[in-house]
Structure formats: C-alpha cells, structure tokens
Automatic annotation (TrEMBL):
It comes from the Bacteria. It comes from Streptomyces griseoviridis. One of its GO terms (molecular function) is FMN binding. InterPro entries: Flavin_Rdtase-like_dom, NADH-dep_flavin_reductase, Split_barrel_FMN-bd. Keywords: Oxidoreductase. This is Oxidoreductase. Residues 13-160 form the Flavin reductase like domain. Signal peptide: none annotated. Pfam families: Flavin_Reduct.
Length: 167
C-alpha cells in the first residue's frame, strides 16, 4: 500500500494542530503567496526554518527561482487574509491586490498587519513528494507589537477551501 493511511499516520497527524503561516515569494518581477500548514524550525545551529510548498501552487513556481522567501504568522482573527492566500489561486488572480505589503530584504514581499514575520535566504530545496521543502536562513524579521494575539492554527483554517486541488 502507498500513502499515509497505509501505515496509520493519518490519525497521528490529525492530532497535531500547528500554526499556519503565509509564505510569499518574488522573482523575475512576479510575486506569489500561499497559506502553508507545513512549516517549522529545523535546526538550532545554525538557525534554519523549513516551509513546504505544494507543487501545484503558483507560489511554488515563483519560489523555485527566488533567493529569499518571507514567512508570516497570522492572528486567529485574520481569517480574511488566510482565505485570500489559502482559498484563491495566483494562477487566476492577484492575491496581493488590496493587501498592504512592502518590499523587504532581498526583494522579499513582506505583508503588513501580520503578527510576526521573517525573511529567509533559501539555502536548500528538498523534494518531499508532492511538496518541496524550502530551507531558510533567517536574515530579517519584525512583529506587530503588543499585545500579542492568539495565532491561527490548522484547526482554525480547516474550513478554508483550497484555491487548487489538494490531491
């Protein structure tokens, strides 16, 4: 058997509830962004963070040639922003229209009004099946400021219908 269900991993993974984030990429005059559920720090020394992008996403296409990516944490009450980046596809529309953002370190697209963000230099790309892992070396960061709000988790975003097929 092939797939997660063949070894019972669906139950294990279903018990996890990590934060979601929006990953943005810019390269060759194009920009893209998507809601990501697979992201985590992956090294202490040196500090590294990995984000996993679906090969079906336009963000994956743009990130493939990007030197830097930006990773943004959303507050639980930022559902509209999560729906914009998770429920639409950049293949058909500009997700950044009507969203406040600025050019950050290395030309990265940094969203305004998010809880916290960092820009990372892409130091490795890892084939993970239907997702590619982008290993990032953080080079710049910022935060909204106090008071901190609860972060959006996968359980908060589970009802967002993806902008592209997930299977």
């Amino acid at each position: 058997m092939d797939g997660a269900d063949s070894v019972g991993i669906d139950g294990f993974a279903g018990r996890l509830d990590p934060e979601v984030c929006v990953v943005t990429a810019a390269s060759g005059g194009e920009r893209a962004g998507c809601l990501v559920g697979f992201a985590a720090q992956c090294s202490l020394r040196p500090v590294r963070f990995a984000v996993w992008l679906s090969e079906l996403n336009r963000t994956h296409e743009v990130a493939g040639s990007a030197e830097f990516l930006a990773v943004h944490l959303l507050a639980r009450d930022q559902r509209a922003l999560a729906e914009r980046f998770g429920g639409r596809t950049g293949h058909r529309e500009d997700k950044f229209r009507d969203v406040r953002w600025r050019e950050g370190y290395g030309g990265a697209v940094v969203l305004a009004d998010v809880e916290e963000w960092f820009v990372g230099r892409v130091v490795a790309r890892v084939d993970g099946g239907d997702h590619t892992g982008f290993v990032l070396d953080p080079v710049d960061s910022g935060r909204r400021g106090a008071p901190e709000r609860p972060l959006m988790r996968q359980s908060d975003a589970i009802t967002i219908r993806p902008g592209h097929p997930v299977d």
